[in-house]
Amino acid sequence: NHPDIAAAILHPFVSEANHWMVKHHGIFQGYYFFEHVGLDKNMRDDYRDSDHWHACAEFCAKYDQNSFDPDYDNMELNEFRDMVQSVFKNPKRSIAMAYQNDTDSS
Q1: Residues 18, 11: Cα–Cα separation, whole Å
Q2: pLDDT, tens only, 23-61
Q3: Model confidence, pTM
Q4: Are 42 and 59 in contact (CB under 8 A)?
Q5: CA nearest neighbour of 21 among 7, 32, 9, 38
Q6: Residue 30 Cα to chain centre, angstroms
């Protein structure tokens, strides 16, 4: 259930669209393998009415499903350090921010 965990961690730091994509990408990833484990590969279509459906499908097609290919040319983990730090540097929403806003308006 890594999509749920990743979505919970990232929620304060990313846009609603990116949060939705992270939260649902496990189901969208299933398009590429669910049929091999007895599940409906089109399960993602249950979310077709979402404004974020196409972005999530594109993310999985371009990046997520390729990560299962042992010959996929990927970057070293340390190459993402600055990007990760910049994302976690400025939360867009959090309990602390909500509290700060409440105390500022009092």
Answers
A1: 9
A2: 999 999 999 999 999 999 999 999 999 999 999 999 999
A3: 0.79
A4: no
A5: 7
A6: 14
